[in-house]
Amino acid sequence: MSEVTRILSAIEQGDPSAAGQLLPLVYDELRQLATQKLTQEKAGQTLQATALVHEAYLRLVDVEKAQHWNSRGHFFAAAAEAMRRILIDNARRKRRRKHGGDRQRIDLDEALCVAGPREDLLALDEALTRLAAQEPVKAEVVKLRYFAGLSLEEVAAFLGISAATAKRYWTVARAWLFAALVEPGAQAPE
Q1: Terminal alpha carbon distance of the chain
Q2: Taking the model in full, what pTM does it have?
Q3: Is residue 115 helix, strand or coil?
């Protein structure tokens, strides 16, 4: 049993000091994951990687709501999901009129150069939710690849499927998500 798995087990059993022991062991990996997530965001993102790591960590190791972690991989998959939800919540908050959602932000540097189209995070989340309702394994492959930054081999090992199947699911799910973003109401892949 790795040190991280042992500490996760202690957190699950309600040991209040275990959460403090876990952060130094996983902080660098969580920070790297958060940085990767934020680079995929639109320009003008005000959330910083440190804040994203801390918020996700607090959600994951809340002693009052003990969670069961099967392994280190399970913890990091949950961390990726927590970060995704934080980013979605932040995007929804910014969309509200109270927070300037009815105004368009224009970045001077971006206005001066030609920039390619970027996916809208909320539209992606909605499409991913529809995919998960119909094809949960394919949606999980997308979450682990896109949000957790895992390789196809790591995704396959985590989900207990072959690398070829993971690659096929990744290809099909990406194509379906692209179609769903371009043409809302698309059906899930077969």
Answers
A1: 39
A2: 0.50
A3: coil
